[in-house]
């Protein structure tokens, strides 16, 4: 595989990373004058075992031959996670992608009424450059469907790049029981 693609692969999974800003609610209204119904604000994710699949939908990278970028469109990655009730009540944005090795700082983060919108600046030690991540999508207590776009300046090819992925997740049951301790 091309070295550039090896550097980009982690970005494909980055549909979200880091936590919400400390001390802020996930319910940040985009329209301060709007008074959403209590039901709209009360949509929370369910605790349990979640499964997600992410698909690369577009890739525009300076210096990368278009045929190579086109060959990677449609690549899919799957992951699972166990979500506790506390995590379901206030999910960290990395829940939506499994991006554990990228440090992101939210610039805006809104998760209310079944809609998720976020803009973050991110840093990944294995990928040079300034990264901006935008997440837009919908969620229910047992599913989510988001589109994330990572834009990088000064990336692995020395130029700019824009990678977009579509991620869908669903609750698939209860978390596996922890193994009993031998004693």
Tell me about this structure.
The structure is a single chain. This protein is mainly beta and 183 residues long. It has a single domain (3-24, 39-173), classed as Porin (Beta Barrel), CATH 2.40.160. 15% of the residues lie in helices and 44% in strands. It has four helices and seven strands, in the order ααβαβαβββββ. It has helices at residues 3-13, 38-41, 66-72, 85-89, and strands at residues 48-61, 76-83, 103-112, 115-124, 127-140, 143-153, 161-173. It has a seven-stranded antiparallel beta sheet with strand order 2-1-7-6-5-4-3, sandwiched between helices. A hairpin with a 2-residue loop joins β4 (115-124) and β5 (127-140). The protein is globular, with a radius of gyration of 17 Å. Residues 1-40 have low confidence and may be disordered.
Give the helix/strand layout.
Layout: H1 3-13, H2 38-41, E1 48-61, H3 66-72, E2 76-83, H4 85-89, E3 103-112, E4 115-124, E5 127-140, E6 143-153, E7 161-173
Antiparallel strand pairs: 1-2, 1-7, 3-4, 4-5, 5-6, 6-7
Quick summary of this structure?
The protein is mainly β and 183 residues long.
Radius of gyration (CA) equals 17 Å
Largest sheet: 7 strands, antiparallel
Q: Percent of residues in helical segments? A: 10-25%
Distance between the termini: 47 Å
The DSSP helix count reads 4
**What is the name of the CATH architecture?**
Beta Barrel
Q: What is the highest CATH level, the class?
A: Mainly Beta
Amount of beta strand: 35-45%
Low-confidence stretches are 1-40
Q: What is the CATH T-level topology?
A: Porin
């Amino acid at each position: 595989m091309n070295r550039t693609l090896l550097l980009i692969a982690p970005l494909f999974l980055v549909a979200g990373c880091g936590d919400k800003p400390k001390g802020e609610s996930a319910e940040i209204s985009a329209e301060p004058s709007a008074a959403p119904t209590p039901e709209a604000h009360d949509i929370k994710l369910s605790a349990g075992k979640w499964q997600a699949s992410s698909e690369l939908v577009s890739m525009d990278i300076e210096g990368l031959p278009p045929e190579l970028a086109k060959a990677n469109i449609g690549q899919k990655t799957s992951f699972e996670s166990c979500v506790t009730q506390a995590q379901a009540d206030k999910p960290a944005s990395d829940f939506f992608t499994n991006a554990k090795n990228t440090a992101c700082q939210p610039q805006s983060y809104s998760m209310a009424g079944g809609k998720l919108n976020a803009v973050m600046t991110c840093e990944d030690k294995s990928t040079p450059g300034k990264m901006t991540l935008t997440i837009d999508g919908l969620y229910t207590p047992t599913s989510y469907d988001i589109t994330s776009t990572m834009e990088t300046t000064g990336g692995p090819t020395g130029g700019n790049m824009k990678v977009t992925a579509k991620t869908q997740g669903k609750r698939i049951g209860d978390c596996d029981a922890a193994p009993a301790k031998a004693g």
